[in-house]
Specification:
Order of helices and strands: EHEHEEEHEHEHEHEEH
Low-confidence stretches: 209-213
Number of strands: 10
Largest sheet: 5 strands, mixed
Shape: elongated
Helix content: 25-40%
Structural class: alpha/beta
Number of helices: 7
Distance between the termini: 39 Å
Strand content: 25-35%
């Protein structure tokens, strides 16, 4: 059994559960080595298909590729967030010169794409977009009262519960997103992959139940 796992994951999962899963796994299997690549969900899936990683973690509405084995970890609500001083509704926010400033990550982010499609379908417009390199950087902008963002709830739950940020009306038009661990259907008998997936299911599923409370 190989003692190395190559993993690709988005920042939103690395910082909200995956790093802890790796820590727990290393306590049980201390001889394991990890290569962890941080990329967008679409790039992670491509790396898996090309055989460059053993496991790809993604947040998406679903996985269409039948050549990939998907392991659902948890449901992930996507929320519109801004400073506590921002308007309470999206329409009011988009009507405000101060707050109609979309602060977000890469263009091929799955939830950014979803939100931009939602805006287009509902004839709503963003007047300015700032693209940043990390979720922490995005939250710094929001906490400094500059604009709004659309992010997985798991990434902003601490800032919301501490009243640094707030949700701008939950939107039932947003599709349901989930966190998935993806593997190739033939893993060449690498039992370490199955063990890590099992650990991720246990930890991340339990962690999301705590947040829901």
């Amino acid at each position: 059994m190989t003692n190395k796992l190559k993993i690709a994951a988005p920042e939103s999962l690395v910082t909200t559960g995956l790093s802890e899963v790796i820590k727990i796994f290393l306590e049980k299997y201390p001889n394991t080595e990890f290569d962890l690549v941080n990329n967008t969900c679409s790039k992670n899936q491509a790396l898996l298909i090309n055989g460059e990683v053993d496991i790809a973690f993604v947040i998406n509405t679903g996985i269409q590729n039948n050549a990939i084995k998907k392991h659902k970890l948890s449901d992930d609500e996507i929320v519109i967030v801004a400073h506590q001083s921002a308007p309470d509704t999206l329409d009011e926010l988009l009507s405000s010169k101060r707050y109609n400033h979309f602060v977000i990550n890469e263009k091929d982010s799955t939830y950014r794409t979803m939100f931009e499609d939602f805006l287009s379908s509902n004839l709503k417009e963003v007047s300015k977009t700032t693209e940043l390199w990390s979720i922490d950087a995005i939250m710094t902008f929001l906490i400094d009262d500059m604009g709004f963002s659309v992010l997985p709830y798991r990434t902003v739950v601490k800032e919301i519960t501490s009243n640094k940020l707030k949700i701008i009306e939950r939107n039932d038009q947003f599709p349901t997103f989930s966190s998935f661990a993806l593997t190739r259907k033939k893993n060449w008998d690498n039992n370490l992959i199955d063990l890590f997936i099992q650990e991720a299911k246990i930890y991340m599923g339990r962690n999301m139940k705590k947040e829901e409370k």
